[in-house]
# Entry
Amino acid sequence: MAYDDSVRPLRVAIIGSGPSGIYAAEALTAHQDVPVSVDVFDRLCTPFGLVRYGVAPDHQKIKNVTAALLRILQRPQIRFFGRVGYGRDVTHDDLKQYYDAVIYAVGAAEDRALGIPGENLPGSLSATEFVAWYNGHPDTLSLVMPPPPPGVAVVGIGNVAVDVARVLGKTVEELASTDIATNALETLSHSQVTDIYILGRRGPAQAKFTLKELKELGELAAADFIVRPEELALTPAAEAAITDVTVRRSLEVLRDLAARAPSGKPRRIHLRFLASPVEILGQVGVEGLRIERNRLDEQERAVGTGTYETLDVQMVLRAVGYKGRPIANVPFDLRRGVIPNEGGRVQQDGTTVPGEYVVGWIKSGPVGVIGTNKASAVETVTNLLQDALDLPTPARPDAAAITALLTERHVPYTTLEDWLKLDTYEQELGRMQGRVRVKIDSPEAMARLQCQELALSAAGSV
Ligand code: NAP
# Structure
């Protein structure tokens, strides 16, 4: 039957339980007068997406947003289905049959490439992989990460680059109490790193990192943070052109840092500006990184000067931004790496695809902080609710039909209660080891834990 709010609630499926998906669920269930029933699907059995698997483990304050996200998922109109993959366990056609509308909240999981020779050498990898590895993402279970070598280059000057450099610069003692993956902590305990280079292709005024993250680099126990004063020099015109107060403040902090003499700590984080990687050197692995000195043109673009330098590094991590990945039967803009949309309404060849919406990074690209997703979700949901009465009629809009389908297909889906058990277990295990939590990362172990009474005495056997 067509949607009639006096007869049945509007049924909405959200694909992805990261912050953007959960904020969309919040916006959908915010109005008492509009009955809406929401099913949030995730291919993993754990909710919260990048908050669990992207935010750095030593940034627990940022992870505190989890409590608010959980309260949203606990609303009676919302159900969580973990371990249900879009395209694997439920298809586009299924969703059309069971829901009035679908919101894709699948994020931007793909890393951008540099497009330089040597990029595929062992030891050259994306920050996306490295971040997922130290956060214990189940996708990285088979990744064999060697202990960091003496020299590591991190390309990019956004917050991901800073996160990665900071984690590499910290000692095991500084990381041990966090929820960093246990295997990553063990590998990092064998780190040989002495020099970490963060490379910005443009200047300090164009850096994307935020002030708090920048300052943290100057406060590490065993790593000096080295900024070259000459790379902060701006022409009077460039200096005068800076109107953004945050950029001004960031320049001040950088100049303070540049004035500090290194104190002889065993590790050094070098922040370099106006330097582009041009070739990763090596035969069987990374043996060096060739960089070219840049200048800025009138549009603040980086232009090579023909002056080169080689950094003595054995590992290169690309932190040059993310992009979305196409998903089955949904239009995709390959150039921008997003699902094309107008205010969150999915577009194909200039027309709106009825009943399909987007939120988060797959809507807007990988920009902003977690909170940015909230306003973006409200925009999408406002448009969805405006469209509600005209949406195509699903064949099976009753809430029980989708669970029956998953059961019939033997999809071992998990619920929010399962997650809460796992969450308690991880935190309890953490408490016993003096850590925030100990993440369980293998899908099999997660599944086992969720199907059994949790016996903490058997913790070591998971
Ligand atoms: P980002 O902020 O867009 O930074 C990407 C960096 O890569 C920029 O410095 C960019 O320089 C550089 N870059 C791009 N292409 C390059 C190339 N070919 N060669 C050299 N450099 C290149 O991306 P991100 O660091 O991945 O962060 C994504 C989003 O997550 C951001 O909104 C960020 O703030 C957020 N985030 C926040 C936190 C936090 O709050 N603590 C932590 C992690 C991430 P140009 O400017 O020259 O393009």
